[in-house]
Structure formats: C-alpha cells, structure tokens
Design goal:
Layout (H helix, E strand, L loop, with lengths): L1 H13 L3 H8 L4 H22 L1 H9 L20 H7 L11 E5 L8 E5 L1 H17 L7 E4 L8 H12 L2 E4 L5 H8 L6 E4 L1 H14 L6 E4 L6 H11 L3 E7 L4 E6 L6 E3 L4 E4 L9 E7 L10 E7 L1 E2 L11 E2 L4 E2 L4 E3 L2 E3 L1 H8 L5 E12 L2 E10 L5 H15 L1 H8 L3 E8 L14 E3 L6 H17 L1
Parallel strand pairs: 3-4, 3-5, 5-6, 6-7, 18-21, 19-20
Antiparallel strand pairs: 1-2, 7-8, 8-9, 9-14, 10-11, 11-12, 12-15, 13-14, 16-17, 18-19
Helix pairs in contact: 1-3, 2-6, 3-4, 6-7, 8-9, 9-10
This protein binds zinc ion (ZN).
Length: about 450
C-alpha cells in the first residue's frame, strides 16, 4: 500500500517541471525509497520469469523460485552477461512489444548486442535525465549542442527526450569532425556542449587556437577521461566539464556527476546496483538490475566495469548515493579516442598481413594531448614497420569505418612498432593483448583490481 502510494508520488513528481521535481524528490524518506525499490525489483523478476524465454529457462536451470526472492543478492551466483545477449539473441529477453532498439559493441566479439526499448521507457528516462541536468544548472534559456554519434547509439535520443522537459534550444550536430563542428556551431553560440570526452578534447584544442565563446558547461558521456585532460578542457573554456557513466544496455545514464565532481550519483530509482565481489579497497565489478523496464528487463547484468559503491551522503545534498569513477574494464576492453576497442579489433586489423609473427600487443598511451595506439608486432621476414602500418591502415579503412573516422578527426594516433621475434612473449605463457598505459590517477590500484578480477573471472 505504502509502495503504491510512493510510486504514485514519484510518477507525479517526475511529471512536474524539473525544478519542482528536484525539490520534491529530495523529500522522499529513505525507508520509503527502499520499499519502492524492493517492490519494483519483485515486479521485474516476475515479469522476466513469466514472459522472457531466457529468464524462464535460466531460473528453472538454477532452481530459483522467484516468488521467494526479495533482494538481488538472494539470487546467489545468477547473473546475466553480454555474452548471454549474443548467444541467446535479444529476442529471448523480451517481455513486451518494443518500439525501438539500439546497439552496442563489446570487446570480446565484433557481434553487436541489440537492446530493445519502448517509447514509455524513453520518456521516463528523459524525465529522469532532465532532473539531473537541471541540478547541474541547465535552464530554458540555454542553447545545447550535441556531438553524440547518432548511429545506433542511445545517448543522443535520451538527450533529446531530456531537453524536451528542460525546454532549451537544442541541435544534434552528430559526431562530425571537431573543426567542422567549431565553425558551424559558433554562429549559434551554444553555451552547453555534449560530446564524447576525446572529441571534446580535440574541440577544445581547436577553440584554444581559434578563440572561445562563453560556455556554461560541457557534458561528456560514452567513455572515461583522465582528470588532467578534464582540467585542460575546463581551463580552455573556463567552464566545468561533467561526466556521466552509462551503457546502452542500461538505456544510457546509470549515474552522473553533480557540481562537486566527486563520484557519480547513481540512479537508484531505476536500477539496483551491486558489486558482489570486492577487493580490499571496495572495488568490484558493477552489476545492475533494471527496475522500471518492461520490454527488455535485465536481471543482475554484469557491466564488466570496475567501480566502488559509495554509501556516504554527498555534501551537495542530493539524496541518491554515489559510485566512484569507473577505474577499468574487467576484460581487456579499453575505451579511448579510437573508440571501444578490445583484442578482436586488432586481430582483425592484422589479419592477412604476412611477415609478422602471431604475437602482438596494443598499448594505449597518451601523448601530446591525445590517445596513441601503439601496435607492437614481431617482424619475421624483412617487412618494415612502415609496410605493416600501410596494410593496417588499409584494413582499418576497409573494415572499421568508425575507427577510421576517429583517426581522421585526430581523436587518436596510430603507430606500428616492429620488434624481434619472441620479444613480446618472453617467458610468459600469455600475452596481455590490449594494455591501457595511460596515466590515470591512482593507477596502481586500477591495475591491482583489474588483475585480481581478471584472475577471478578466469577461474570461475
Ligand atoms: Zn553530489
């Protein structure tokens, strides 16, 4: 009864203008929020168990009686993975009639994951995002320009939905070269810019040369960003750059920064976050359950991202809890200026090239303000690094148009380093194929967590 009342209040509150939503939503007592989350969790489990072919069979296989489950942790070692989506097909997860779909590619496979949504979900996510953006200071008089990639990607659509509730002027430029964006956006004088962090860095470098205009804020989504790069961008524009964390599977934003930029505020009303296994520093793989999705709910979805849930209240006063900035991917995926890259990308790039051994390694570095992919190969019969580079670049253009586009936009550089046969492997049994060598803050911790989790994953 209480839960129903709270749900009605929440829905009503989210239908108010963002500024009134913010005020009311903060008044919800913690116990009531917890009760509502549990009710939503049970509803999601029931829906999945009744309508999704995948979950019906998986629950049976794991001997899970969903009527007895009150909390995600009671599901024990039951998880949903990206591989499940690929192997079983997204249709096996459907519990209702979808209106649209978005895609995301991972690291371990070039096969995209397809995620379905309803228009109702789209609208709810838009309302919720509007509340978050309002808290960052976005108001109806602002002019928003977005350079999010619109090809199969969820972010520009979520932004568009959010802007409707904020009543701002809004232009979707798409992910065009930053120099073109600069020239075409400038006459409009947008004071808020959305884009992927590596793209925002390139745009800022151009603005530093050609001149800036007054900005209220920038908002980055889709990839991680080193703090030093953020400071560089903020100093150029003299405006703050906020980051968000999300996945296509989660329908965009799972969490976003407040003006303090000290961790991301989680969307606890729409997701149940867990880190079931943590290291001594509290870092573990983020696992989330969707709480308000009715077309393709995900139960305990393994994000493969490493973070820490922060339970202390944020000094900003917003009631929802936080999570730390994502430190690393649990697999070998690296998010950089090239895009989301994993071993399979480089395997494809090197395929069919003679004169190199089967051993190779891709190091992601940061040099002269941009990401550098250093592809290390072992040369076996007189081919030089330049020959290999030409072949790799040709493969890139032919097979990876997105990565080629990012290279043209100078979001990263590509360099081939030739080594003697046997140089990469040494005595090691396995070679770490993709290595993130950029200097993020607290680097040793990242690597420690990363290795620990990787070994757990390999054993399990
Ligand atoms: Zn805060």
């Amino acid at each position: 009864m209480l839960t129903k009342a709270i749900e009605t209040i929440e829905r009503t509150v989210l239908h108010l203008e963002p500024q009134r939503s913010v005020r009311f939503i903060n008044l919800l007592p913690p116990l009531a929020v917890e009760k509502m989350r549990r009710a939503r969790f049970r509803r999601t489990l029931r829906l999945a168990g009744e309508r999704s072919v995948f979950y019906r069979e998986a629950f049976k296989r794991h001997n899970i009686d969903i009527t007895r489950i009150e909390h995600p942790s009671q599901l024990g070692d039951f998880y949903t993975t990206g591989e499940d989506l690929r192997v079983h097909g997204s249709e096996a997860f459907l519990t209702g009639q979808p209106d649209t779909a978005f895609e995301t590619t991972g690291t371990t496979s070039p096969v995209p994951k397809r995620i379905f949504f309803s228009n109702r979900e789209l609208e709810e996510m838009g309302r919720c995002s509007a509340v978050g953006l309002y808290r960052l200071g976005i108001r109806p008089e602002d002019r928003i320009f977005s350079a999010y990639d619109s090809s199969f990607w969820v972010s520009p659509v979520v932004l568009k939905m959010a802007v409707q509730f904020l009543n701002c002027f809004h232009v979707e430029a798409g992910k065009i070269p930053p120099s073109e964006f600069y020239e075409r956006a400038r006459p409009y004088q947008p004071n808020i810019i959305f884009g992927e962090p590596s793209w925002l860095i390139r745009l800022s470098e151009i603005a530093e040369q050609r001149g800036i205009w007054p900005l209220k804020l920038m908002f980055g989504g889709g990839e991680n960003m080193a703090e030093e790069a953020r400071i560089l961008v903020e100093n150029i524009w003299n405006a703050p750059l906020y980051l968000s964390y999300g996945q296509t599977e989660s329908f965009g934003t799972l969490a976003a920064e407040c003006e303090r930029k000290d961790g991301y505020h989680r969307n606890d009303l729409f997701f149940w976050f867990e880190t079931p296994e943590v290291d001594t520093n509290g870092f573990g793989e983020l696992v989330y359950t969707t709480l308000v999705r009715d077309v393709m709910p995900l139960i305990r979805y393994r994000s493969t991202d490493l973070t820490k849930l922060i339970e202390d209240p944020c000094p900003c006063g917003f009631f929802v809890k936080r999570m730390a900035k994502v430190r690393a991917r649990c697999d070998e995926m690296v998010v950089c200026g090239m895009g989301n890259v994993g071993p399979w990308v480089f395997e494809d790039l090197l395929r069919g090239i003679g004169g190199i051994s089967g051993d190779w390694q891709a190091g992601v570095k940061h040099e002269a303000g941009s990401d550098l992919i250093e592809l290390r190969v072992e040369l076996t019969d007189g081919l030089g690094p330049n020959d290999v580079e030409n072949l790799v670049r040709a493969n890139l253009r032919q097979n990876f148009s997105d990565f080629a586009k990012n290279l043209d936009m100078k979001l990263y550089e590509l360099r081939i380093v030739g080594l003697k046969p046997g140089a990469l492997r040494g005595d090691a049994r396995k070679i770490k194929r993709v290595v993130d060598e950029r200097q993020f803050t607290a680097r040793p911790l990242i690597l420690a967590c990363h290795d620990e989790l990787a070994s757990t994953a390999n054993n399990g």
